[in-house]
Amino acid sequence: QVQLVESGGGLVQAGGSLRLSCASSGRSFGIYAMGWFRQAPGKEREFVANIGATAGNTGYADSVKDRFTISRDNAKNTLYLQMNSLKPEDTAVYYCARPSIPWQLSDLQYDYEYWGQGTQVTVSS
Questions:
Q1: For residue 32, which of 111, 125, 93 has the smallest C-alpha distance?
Q2: Mind giving me the DSSP string for 91-103?
Q3: Do residues 44 and 115 make contact, with C-beta atoms less than 8 angstroms apart?
């Protein structure tokens, strides 16, 4: 069983930065693509960013492009999301997720099999 545990969320003022981490259990972290999603109150969960197993490929939602950076450290079984120039509309619970198929770099929720419990990010204006 894979466990994903996010950390690093919190309260920040608009324009500030946060770095989220996602620690993964198990030995297979380094062969799977990974993704970040978020869910704001009253809204559906949405794609934020994804990264290939070797970090050679990344993808971003238009709303976070040029502000957020996804990265990973396979030696530490950890996924990161550096969030800069935060806006109030970035307020949400942020989730990391692992897809069902290792090489699948997807922005669709149903392609992801394992999910963390989420970490709250609140951006004040």
A1: 111
A2: -EEEEEEEESSTT
A3: no
